[in-house]
Amino acid sequence: MTVFKSRINVSSAAYKANLAQMQALVDELKDHLQLAQSQGTETHIARARKRGKFLARERITLLLDKDSPFLELMPLAGLMHQGGFGPGGTTVIGIGYVNKRLCLINANVGTRKGGAVDYATSLKVLRLGEIALENKLPTINLVESGGANLPDQDRVFNNYGASFREMSRRSKKGIPTLSVVFGNATAGGAYVPGMSDYTIMQKDAAKVFLAGPPLVKMATNEISKDEELGGAMMHSRVSGVADFLAEDEEDAIRIAREVIKTLRAAQPHAVPITPIVAPRYSAEEILGIVPASLKKPFDVRELLLRVVDNSQFTEFKTNYGITMVCCWTKIDGYPVAIIANNGVIFAEAAQKATQFIQLANKSDTPILFIHNTTGFMVGKQHEQNGMINSGAQLIHAVSGSTVPHISLLIGNSYGAGNYAMCGRSFQPRFLFSYPNVQSGVMGAEQISGVMEIVKRQSAASLNKVVNEKQLKKEKDAMFQDAQQKASVWHATSELWDDGVIDPRDTRKYLSLSLKAVYNSPIQGSDAFGVFRM
Fold first, then answer.
1. What is the structure's pLDDT at 442?
2. d(CA 407, CA 192)
3. pLDDT in tens, 14-27
4. How far lies 518's CA from each of 134, 208, 307, 406, in Å?
5. CA-based diameter of the chain, in Å?
6. In Å, what is the CA distance from 434 to each residue of 27, 77, 361, 439, 496?
C-alpha cells in the first residue's frame, strides 16, 4: 500500500479557526446527546430505585461483556418532533458484545414515560429490525414498556405491527430474538416477549398481558389480579409464555448471557489478522481538517490518514476523475473499499466509481461511501457530454451491488449525489453523519434562488410588476425553511442517519460497523442494471 504523508499544518491560522468552529458543533452535539441520556424525571428514577430496579443503561452495562465497546444507534431520533418524548424516544438501541457474540440490544427506558412507544421509538425499533436482518445479529430486548403511546397511535400502529412481522421473519431465517421482561409488557407490547425465540421473566416484577385487570373488568366483568392474569410465575407454570423464570434483575441478565452462549456460532466472512496497526496521525486533528463551513474544499485523503490502519491505502485511478477518491484499505484489520468525494461529481469521477464498485463486488469487499458533494456537475458542456448517462451508471452500480455498504456523511450530500453515494434511500447497512453535515434535494441558497427566478419569469410572462418587498420576504422564508430541513439535526431526528458522531470517533464507529457486516458471509454481484453509454 502507498504511504501518504499529511500536508496539514496544525499551527496554521486556518487550521485553528476551523478547529474552533468544529469544536462548537461538537459541543452542540454533546448538548443534544446529554438530553438523550435522560432516563426520566427524578421522581420516576427515585421510584425505580426504591423498587430495587436498575435503569435501562445500567441493564445494558450488566449485559455486555466487561470493558467491551457499545455502539449506540439513533440516539437523537425524534429530536425535532413536536409532542414526542424527546431525543431518543423511550428506548436505547445499540450493538455490543454479549458472551463474545455481537448482538443488537434494545432496552426500554421504563422510567421515561413508562417506556411507552412514541413515534420516534417506533421508527428506531423498525430500523433495529433492518440492521438485525441484514447483518444476521441476534437481538436482545430488555423489556419494560406500557405499549403504544395512545396519543401517537395513528403513527405508531403500523410501525408497531411491522416490528412483530420482522421478528417473525428473522426467526424464520434463524436470527433469534431474546426478551428479558423486568416489568410491564402490556397490550401490543405483550407480543414482544410473545414473538421472541426466548423469553425470560423476572419473578414478582414482570407483567405480560394483552389487557390489564381494569380493562378485563370492563370488557368481560371478570375480576383478576396482576399475577394470575400475567405475572411471571403464572407464565412460567401455566401459560408457558416464559421460558425462564429469574429471581431478580441480575439473575435475568445472567440467564440472558447464558442463552446467548448456546446460540449457533456466527459464520464471519473474515477475521482480522493481528496485530492491528493504528493510524499514524491523531484523530484529534480531524476537527481542524474537515471544514465546518461547507463552502471550503479539503482533500479527503487527510481524513483517511487519520482513520485507516497504519494510515495506508491503495488508490485506484489516482489521476483520473480526481473529484472522487477510490481506494482499498483496512480499518481495524477489516478490508474495505472506500469511495470518497473530493467535491462535485464529474462524468469521469462517476465512471471511475462505477468500475470500482464492480471490482469491490468481484472481491466480496464491503464499500464505505464518504459523502462531501453538492451532486453531479451541471451545465451545457456536461449535459452534452452525457453527465446523465455517467450518473445513471453509478446509481445502477450502487443499486446492483450486493456487498455491504456503509455511508459516512462529512459535509455536503445533495441531490442525486446523495443517491449515487448510497444515501439513506439506497439502504446502506449503517449511515453516520458529522455535525456539520447538510443534505437534501439542493442547498437553501439554490432553492430560494430558483424560486426567485421562477417568480420573476412568471411575472414577466404575465406583464406584471414584481413586488420586490413581498418577493424578498418569500425568498427569505423559503431559505430559512430549507436551511432548517437540510440541517443534520433535522436529518437525524427523522432517522436519515443512524447517529450524528464526533468526528474524532470515526474509526470506532466504522470498526464496529465492519465487525457487524463481516459477521456473516459476503457475496458480491455480477448483475447490474443497463449501463447507458
1. 65
2. 31
3. 999 999 999 999 99
4. 11, 36, 18, 12
5. 83
6. 12, 15, 28, 12, 13
- Per-residue pLDDT band at 358 (split at 50, 70, 90): very high
431, 424 Cβ separation under 8 angstroms: yes
pTM attached to this predicted model: 0.93
Report CA 252 to chain centroid distance, whole Å.
Answer: 29
Residue 207 near residue 230, CB atoms below 8 Å: yes
Q: Per the structure block, which three cell numbers stand in for 453?
A: 427566478
Tell me which residue has cell 396482576: 226
Q: Name the DSSP letter for residue 343.
A: S
- Average pLDDT for 349-376: 97
Distant-in-sequence, close-in-space partners of 372: CB < 8 Å, separation ≥ 6: 300, 340, 341, 342, 343, 409, 410, 411, 412, 413
Q: Where are the beta strands (DSSP E) in 146-226?
A: 177-186, 198-202, 207-209
Per DSSP, the three-state class of 292 is coil
How much is the mean pLDDT over the chain? 93
Is beta strand 70-73 parallel, antiparallel or unpaired with respect to 430-433? unpaired
The closest of 123, 125, 121 to 105, measured between CA atoms, is 125
* pLDDT tens digits, 121-167: 999 999 999 999 999 999 999 999 988 887 888 889 899 889 999 99
**What count of other Cβ atoms lies within 10 Å of the Cβ of residue 32?**
19
Contacts of 283 (CB under 8 A, 6+ apart): 306, 307, 503, 504, 505, 506, 507
Using one digit for the tens of pLDDT, what is the confidence trace for 45-55? 999 999 999 99
- Over its C-alpha atoms, the chain yields an Rg (Å, rounded) of 25
The Cα-based distances of 75 to 14, 92, 223, 386, 447 in angstroms read 32, 7, 41, 42, 30
Distance CA 477, CA 52 (A): 52
Q: pLDDT tens digits, residue range 386-430?
A: 789 999 999 999 999 999 999 999 999 998 999 999 999 999 999
CA 77/CA 370 separation, integer angstroms: 22
Cα 510 to Cα 512: distance, rounded to the nearest angstrom: 6
For residue 410, which of 520, 286, 263 has the smallest C-alpha distance? Answer: 286
Mean pLDDT, residues 89-110 taken together: 97
How many whole angstroms separate alpha carbon 422 and alpha carbon 398? 7
Question: Over the stretch 211-239, which tens digit does the pLDDT of each residue have?
Answer: 878 888 888 888 888 889 999 999 999 99
CA 138 – CA 43 distance, rounded (Å): 34
